Every structure is written in structure tokens, then in C-alpha cells.
Amino acid sequence: MAHTSDRRAKLGQLVRFGLVGGVNTGTFFVLYLLLHPWMPYFAAYSLAFVLAMVGSFFMNTYFTYRTRPTWKKFFLFPLTNITNYVIQSAGLYALVTWAGMNTKIAPLVAAVVAIPFTFVLSRKILIPGTGAAAGETDRTRSTSTV
């Protein structure tokens, strides 16, 4: 029975992660479109990515994984996004340079491809006990906040 509830909890996290990912991708894309006229596309992409990542941290801690944010998690969370950033950046470059995709659409396509990788890595950091980087106790999780 505990195994079923664990699977149900993970499924709930995955669904919430998808919702947060959709909101975060939309936020990223709007920021990118707002910044794009003022700077080169890759600079706009990078700045929008960083700003959206901060929002993603808080949405994932409170909503997806239902845990409190801590400074430790906040500083580790960008590590989860390095993989995401590399996948998205390579995808963006390939889509624009080699596939000739419009620079306003390519970041959205690249972001969708990277989502599954981010779920696995963020779960390891934001939920104690699911990965070596998140070896905090429940006591720490409930009392230390950003």
C-alpha cells in the first residue's frame, strides 16, 4: 500500500511539475520576447532564462514538491538548470543556425525538449532523501527558509 501511495505522490509531483513548467516556460518566453528587441537574441534568451529560473525555484518548492525553500536549495537549484540550459542552448543554436527556425519560436521548442531532465534533477535537490545533493533532514526542510 505504501508503494502505491509513493507512486501516487510522484505522479502528483510530475503533474504539478508539468503545470509549473508550463507557467515557467510562458514566463520565460514573455520575458524573452520583451528583451529580444533590446539585445541580441542569445543575450535576451540567457537573461530571460535566469529570471524565469528564480521564479521556477519558488513555484517548485512551494507547489510542486510542497517543501520550504532554503538558502541551500536556492543555491543548489541552478545546478539542476545547468543541464536544462545546455540542452536548451544547444537546441536553440541548432534550430536557429542549422534549421533556420525563427529566433522568436526556437527558444520555446528547445525548452520543451529539456523539461524531463529538469524534473529529475530538481526533485533530487528539492526533496531530501531523493539524491545525494539533497541530504537534508525533514527538520531542516521545515524550519530553514529563504
Descriptive notes:
The protein is mainly α and 146 residues long. The chain contains 5 helices and no strands. Helix 1 (2-35) packs across helix 4, helix 2 (41-64) crosses helix 3 (71-98) and helix 3 packs antiparallel against helix 4 (106-126). It is elongated. The model is unreliable at 132-144 (pLDDT under 50).
Structure summary:
The protein is mainly α and 146 residues long. Helices cover 77% and strands 0% of the residues. The chain is elongated, with a radius of gyration of 16 Å.
Largest sheet: none
- How does the overall form come out from the CA principal axes? elongated
Strand content: under 5%
- Tally the helices: 5
Return Rg in Å: 16 Å
Oligomer: single chain
Low-confidence stretches: 132-144
**Mean pLDDT over all positions:** 83
> What class, by secondary structure content?
mainly alpha
- SSE sequence, one letter per element: HHHHH
Report the helical percentage.
Answer: over 70%
Q: State the end-to-end distance.
A: 35 Å
Number of strands: 0
Fold blueprint:
Layout: H1 2-35, H2 41-64, H3 71-98, H4 106-126, H5 138-143
List keywords for this structure.
mainly alpha; 5 helices; 0% strand; elongated; disordered C terminus
